[in-house]
Specification:
Number of helices: 15
Helix content: 40-55%
Low-confidence stretches: 1-43
Radius of gyration: 31 Å
Largest sheet: 5 strands, antiparallel
Strand content: 15-25%
Length: about 375
Amino acid sequence: MVRRLLCLLLTGALLTAAVGCASILDGQTSSVTRNAETVSPSPSGPATADSYETLVTAILRLIETREEKGDIRVDTYTGDLKADVDRAVSEIPKNTPLGAYAVSSMSGSVTTADAFNSVEVRITYKNITKEQLQNITTVSTIRYLKSVLHTSLTNGAVTTAVYAKGFSLTSDAAKSLVAAVYNENPSDIVMLPTTSLTFYPDTDTDGDKIVVLTFSYQYGASTLKAMEKTLQSAVERICSAVSGTRDGDILLALCQKLMVTVTYSTEPVMTAEEKTSIAPNTAYDALITGVADSSGYARAFKALCDKLGIPCVIVTGTFAGQAHTWNIVTLEGHAYHIDVSQCDENGIAAAFLKNDTEMKNSSYSWDTAHYAVCDGPLTYRDFYAHT
């Protein structure tokens, strides 16, 4: 009986030890005595700081979770603690992206209790919710920023907050990126919104910033979503009716389809809500309302090419000295210009599968550094006979 009891006690001790080890591995910790100085505090325990840099980091972590009060252990702090606390609570709301975005004011005081030194921080926030703080997306590359913008614009987001780290983002650059994302996704993003930006901190200096982009749309979210669905149905219908053995045949068929479907016009049209007149410059204008300027043709053509997997980009430049938009496609290893609006106005031969020299000789101008060199040998004659 005694032997059995000893076995049970030993087994219980082993199980307790095993559970304790498992708890530590899972990130859980039990309490430790104060003289166990080699034991690090648990992730859920008090924050610690031993320098000005780690003090700022600890305060920023409080802001990230919108804590209004927090204690930071400073037992091993090196430096003038009181001066550093005063400096941190003064500089963080002005000079750090997160502080400038979220904090109205903050204060800090050094206290001593039970032989431990700590800094008590109190934070007053602007009209910023915890959810808004959690929804800030950190971006460290332009490519990822474009992905975030694509998601926001596709969903009709009113605001998007990003934390730009490792690169400087100006207002003009951000607006150019919004326009680029729109031009790269003409069937997903029905209309380019007006974009305004607010920077935190709002200074002219380079460096990391939180940028809040606010989008203003011509229509409400439900209307835009319905327009998107209608546009994508039209794209699918047109693409399903096109045939050809070579991509050149398909491109020509798409061009001819637009020439039949769309009427070229640069005259502004009244919006459905009759608030303002805007240029007919969207893929929706071209494929649904049937009237478009050169931008509308180009965006519609790209939407169709994207659906069929043919590489196509939108080019912005000038034609005969006026702002103009057209496309560059990649066909059989070479890049070519196609201006569907001018094909519609002056015939296929005018602007289908043109190289750079031919375009320049026809009074086109564009920033050649931003687009592929078009020097392929094909012309409309290589495919026109197939129709």
